[in-house]
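Reading a protein record of the kind used here takes little practice once its layout is understood. Each number in the token line that follows is a code from a learned vocabulary of backbone shapes. One such record is shown here in full, so that the layout can be seen directly:
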Amino acid sequence: MSMRDFMENLDKAGEVIPITDEVDPNLAAAKIMADYDGRVVLFENVKGSDYKMVSGVCSSRDLFAKAMGISKEELLFKIAEVIDNPTEPEVVSKGACQEVVEKTVDLAKIPIPTYTSQDMGPYITAGVYVSKGKSGRLNASIHRTSPIGKDKFVARICHRDTWKFLEESGGELPVSIALGLDPTVSLAASISAGDTPELSIANSMKPLKLVKCKTNDILVPADAELVLEGVLTSKERHEEGPFADISGTLDKVRQEPVVRINCVTHRKDPIYQALLPAYNEHRLLMGMPKEPQIYRKVKEVADVKNVLITPGGCCWLHALVQIRKKNSDDGILAGEAAHEGHKSLKHCVVVEEDIDIYDLADVEWAIATRFQADRDAKIWQGPGSSLDCTACTIEGSDRLMTSKIILDATIPAGKDRKDFLKAKLGE
């Protein structure tokens, strides 16, 4: 299924918000996206562009669940399953993403939004970079990208697989940037699973077809709305940033590699996909793939039932772990394992299975009625995250460090459990 098919199904259910008035992609569109965070918004009249624009396609757990045909409570288990069972996508000779081929590149035709007045300029935020390593393995990952010319971008490339492939290539790496994708493809591109190709993970979520690009040997989702074919080069650098990160604070300015675009292909009447930074889409795509990692680690030490990276913790720094408590130290052990599973965590709250981890008021109730800080907390110093504004360097270490905490909000051992359960009103 394509993003377009997914949107049509949502539209039939009344779940797409149409914006028919002309909207300026410079700041005005971002304000509307923020107002409707968690909803799919279709901008039908984008100022200065023939493209339509959509936001919010990945902005809730319910939307990911609908894309996979499951409930949101099953997401963690489905993601873990497909990581373990990748399948090869079908390669086809023709794709809708190549209905129109533009060899003369003019990036100004694309309605790339500017999200805040502090940004360096417009930013592509939902672009999935597909590249190939020396081994032939495809990598798909999301990198923010800002135009710096008619046919050039600067891209923030973290030191992961795309960077590794770039170094292997001697500093000139063919890449294709795909936009307008089904949520399953965007989610798969956000997963780090070692040498497992992300597009094979996507195919196990939902059947995916790939097509070869026009100017390079890269396979991309055939039903993408838009594909930008080019070369990522570290031989040319450009200032990148500031830009809002997942925490909502502005990331620093760096010198980053440049992307030269050689060819643009797209569907007829293309829909540009925007992703609102520091809001639901950004946070879910970063945070949800970490939940299976935490789950696997906790499963080694406790009877874990569910894991949730919380929106209030920027879907990165805070986690909730739900267990069936069997031993007095299960809560602390589960918390330690959670921190091991996702090393950027600062705070982890452990609750029992009678607590709904999707209801943050219920979690807070468990903390209020079952937790004593001098008895049920563990605090220590550990490696922090660059996304944590309070993390700092300490003498003798080149790593950012932060204070970490486990809150064991399970029913205290040795107590009568019935004294800690909610009264069942009306029963």
